[in-house]
Amino acid sequence: MKINVMETYKNTDSWYNRMGTGFILLVIGLVFFLGNFGIEVPDWIFSWSTLVFGIGLFIGFKRNFQGGKWLALVLIGGYFTIEHMIGVDLSDYFFAFGFIALGAYLLLKSNHKLDFKHEKAPVNFN
User: Fold this and answer.
1) Could you read off the pLDDT of 37-66 as tens digits, one per residue?
2) Is residue 126 assigned to a domain?
3) Are residues 87 and 105 located together in one domain of the fold?
4) pLDDT of residue 28
5) Which label site among 1, 81, 96, 123 has the fewest CB atoms less than 10 Å from its CB?
């Protein structure tokens, strides 16, 4: 009898924490540095939606991209960030994007894998 136990791995190692935090601080510092030199930084970088997007990616990294909470944050933040970046009102498509994302998530998250190597049980005519 074979038991398959699935464990959720979390990046709790201090090296991963330092790398993730260091990368975030480096990017923030570079953005401020470019702004101080007069290089125009797009205003969508400092928006709430980009912050939600970044927090979602950070949570996903910390949890090895397992679960759906990080994905919800990334999708919501990404939707509004893209809307802000291109300057187009996408509110007419919000529910369509939401249902498509939810459907894709449920299909990809499915615990039942299709097994095409089905073995037939032998037939006993006795």
Assistant:
1) 888 888 888 889 988 998 888 888 888 877
2) no
3) yes
4) 83
5) 1
The answer to whether residues 37 and 91 belong to one domain is no
| Amino acid of residue 6 | M
Could you give the number of structural domains in the chain?
2
Domain that holds residue 22: 10-41
Same domain, residue pair 36 and 59: no
CB neighbour list of residue 20: distance below 8 Å, 6 or more residues apart: 11, 58, 61, 62
Query: How many other β-carbons are positioned within 10 Å of the β-carbon of residue 53?
Result: 21
Region 78-91: mean pLDDT is: 86
The candidate with the shortest Cα–Cα distance to 20, out of 9, 31, 28, is 28
Alpha-carbon span 77 to 57, nearest angstrom = 10
Give the position of tokens 């299709």. 114
Same domain assignment for residues 71 and 95: yes
How many angstroms separate the CA atoms of 14 and 126, rounded?
A: 65
Residue type, 63: R
Q: Are 41 and 34 in contact (CB under 8 A)?
A: yes
